[in-house]
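Teaching assistant's notes for section 4

Start the section by putting this record on the projector. Ask students to predict, before seeing the second block, whether Methyltransferase domain-containing protein will look compact or extended. Collect guesses on the board.
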Amino acid sequence: MRDTDGGSGLGDAFGIALRQHHEGRRSFEIVERDDGLIGVNDLAPYFADRADWPAIDQRAASGITGRVLDLGCGAGRHAVPLTRDGFDVLGIDSSPGAVDVARERGTAAMVGRADALPDDVGGFDTILLLGQNIGLLVRR
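Reveal the predicted structure now:
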């Protein structure tokens, strides 16, 4: 669940699962898409090193310039290595728990959404929507 609560009372399940994985407890997510696909995924890829990113993510990252906005940053899969590489990166995620994990892993991150960025984020030269995050732009 990427939404923080949505009125469901479930809380930040995604953030809790990322926290557990970050603390060394193997965790999984259940994804249920609008098209009916249901899947179970190990959360390890959310913590992958740059060398382990999919080829398409590596290709996209080769064109990064200037200040970077990583929308749907999760645990910082892209933001953390890019920060280590010297880029000025800000991660945005709707999950407060994910933002906390990304910060602990060494990158700047804030709670927000693609359609509702925090007011004080400033401008960016590169905007990332990696890791199948293009759906963040779909208005519901």
